[in-house]
Amino acid sequence: MKLGKYTYNSGVVELNKRFSNGLAFNGNLVWAKIMSLNGTGIDPRNWSAQRTPGGQKFTWKASGTYELPFGRGKKFLNATSGVAGVVDKIIGNWQYGAIFTLNSGSYLSFTCTGNPIGGSTDPCTSLQPMGSDPGKVIRTGNGVVYYNPSQFSQVKDPYCTSITNQFNLQSRCTDLAIQYNGSILFQNSSLGQVGTMDSVSNWKGPSLFNLDMNLVKRFTIKEKITAEFRLDAISATNTPHFPNPTTNINSTSFGRITAPSSGGSNSFTTPAVFYGNRVYVANLRISF
């Protein structure tokens, strides 16, 4: 019997300009919501559909090319002989292109891995409404964090006090809770209890911005021999691509971003070898 299902709803706005007068452009904005009931929930009494991990609220992508209006057959400096012909060799047949990507962050799953009730995705118990998303990339002298250290802190889980002192078991409890503005926000579920949090929260990880640009020059060497020089600037703005922070509340790395995006599920299909560092690539192609 199949118990799981997915529901995907989205709105798409697309703008497309076919190539004319040296310009071509395509852009689209996707606003989406994915809900799922995949049949693997820990609480068999809760059959409510929930957000899916990795789901993104919006994605905006655009690309275009533009031929500079100089040289033979163009609006300006289109002479082919004399000084103008020499100028045409230099400034003619240049083309500029760009690819732009902007994604909202993916929805985060907060877990209590290591809790005695077992499992690697145990839901936590929330003691306060989660409210608006406070996540923001913050660079500190001790690395990169996603939640403001002046608001968020890890403390010993209050439920540890309910464990018997026999055999020093209470002192051996290492579970942690997340404190927000002085009050407990997330904690581990008590023994034998199922966490109250949804498997996927309404808080999101870091968004992604990326701009790739290129410049192309085409020219004729001799009859039937042409050349193309191309310069690509990948991540032209040198904007870092941050992955999701650690969301296991029992991890001492909770809320920290410990590695650059590596092209996996949190990098929104950005190239695996680029972490947002600007990279220049130049190549020359000769056709005959």
Q: Give the radius of gyration.
A: 27 Å
Q: Enumerate the spans where pLDDT stays under 50 for 5 or more consecutive residues.
A: 263-274
Oligomer: single chain
Q: Care to count the β-strands? A: 15
Tell me the structural class.
mainly beta
Overall number of structural domains: 1
Q: How far do the termini sit from each other?
A: 62 Å
The secondary-structure element order is: EEEEHEEEEEEEEEEE
Major sheet size, sense and barrel closure:
8 strands, antiparallel
- Report the principal-axis shape: elongated
Determine the strand fraction and express it as a percent band.
35-45%
**Helix content, binned percent:** under 10%
Number of helices: 1
Mean pLDDT rating: 81
Structural notes for this entry:
The protein is mainly β. The protein has one domain (5-287). It has 1 helix and 15 strands; from the N terminus they run E-E-E-E-H-E-E-E-E-E-E-E-E-E-E-E. It has one helix at 82-91, and strands at 5-20, 23-37, 50-51, 58-67, 94-103, 125-126, 138-140, 143-145, 152-156, 176-180, 183-187, 208-222, 225-234, 256-257, 279-287. Strands 1, 2, 3, 4, 5, 12, 13 and 15 form an 8-stranded antiparallel sheet that branches. Strand 7 and strand 8 form a beta hairpin.
